[in-house]
UniProtKB/TrEMBL annotation:
Any one cellular-component term (Gene Ontology): nucleolus
Lineage, top ranks: Eukaryota, Fungi, Dikarya, Ascomycota, Saccharomycotina
Biased composition (Acidic residues): 97-109
Chief site of localization: nucleus
GO MF terms, alphabetically ordered: 5'-3' RNA exonuclease activity; preribosome binding; rRNA binding
Biased composition, class Basic residues, residue ranges: 209-218
Compartments where found: Nucleus, Nucleolus
Keyword Methyltransferase: no
Protein name: Ribosomal RNA-processing protein 17
UniProt-annotated stretches for the region Disordered: 50-137, 202-238
Length: 238
């Protein structure tokens, strides 16, 4: 093994640096004046772009969170409805079983004993005389209810129909039509006062007023120096 000269030993680091530069270095370095000018003068522009992207990202995250919350609420509501329907069907089945047992017991009792004369005919005749007077009066609301106990329950409600005997029915129910408008206005006024007392009306008025946004302003060079000096003094205070 030949010994290395002093010159080789001293220039060994330089040779290594040259080899690394050739290995990883660039063949040519060119500067574009337009790109350099755009980079040096576009700090504020890029800052605004980053701020806008961050706002869009946060807005998208809020939208996804609201969608997820609505989805969970919908699923919980569906589960609650299924549970209520199951309980309703169970209670309906129990009620049907009880009615069947009662009907069987009544049938057995009616076959074995005599209960006297039937008073239902006399009651119906008396009720027919009493209801003959009220049949001529047309009711205010007419409501037809149709119940289906298999899987669904359907309710049909008809709207208010014009009634010629409205004043007569109001008089029977002790309702004074001439004071209806005054009572309605008084109720509305009382509701407004109560809402104002609870603070609901004030909140609506405040929401209508647009809040004045504070104008953004960059600090001057002297203001930044003063802030840095204050921060340094607070940090090194004994």
């Amino acid at each position: 093994m030949s010994t290395k000269s002093n010159r080789q030993i001293l220039t060994r680091g330089k040779n290594y640096a040259t080899k690394q530069a050739k290995k990883f270095g660039a063949d040519e370095v060119s500067f574009n004046k337009d790109s350099r000018l755009d980079y040096l003068t576009g700090f504020h522009k890029r800052k605004l772009e980053r701020k806008k992207k961050a706002q869009e990202f946060n807005k998208e995250q809020d939208r996804l969170a609201k969608i997820e919350a609505r989805k969970k609420a919908k699923e919980e509501k569906k589960k609650q409805m299924d549970e209520d329907m199951r309980r309703f069907r169970e209670s309906l089945q129990i009620q049907q079983d009880i009615e069947e047992n009662v009907n069987e017991g009544d049938g057995d009792a009616s076959d074995s004993s005599w209960h006297g004369f039937d008073d239902e005919a006399e009651g119906k005749s008396c009720q027919g005389d009493a209801s003959s007077e009220t049949d001529s009066v047309k009711p205010i609301l007419k409501r037809n209810l149709t119940a289906v106990y298999d899987n669904e329950t359907t309710v049909e409600i008809e709207t208010l129909e014009p009634n010629e005997n409205f004043e007569y029915l109001a008089q029977i129910n002790n309702v004074k039509l001439e004071k209806a408008e005054d009572v309605l206005n008084e109720s509305v006024t009382r509701a407004k006062k109560y809402a104002k007392f609870l603070g609901m009306a004030d909140a609506d008025e405040d929401n209508k007023k647009k809040k004045k946004q504070k104008k953004f302003r960059y600090l001057t060079k002297n203001e930044r120096k003063d802030n840095q000096r204050k921060a340094y003094n607070n940090k090194h205070r004994r």
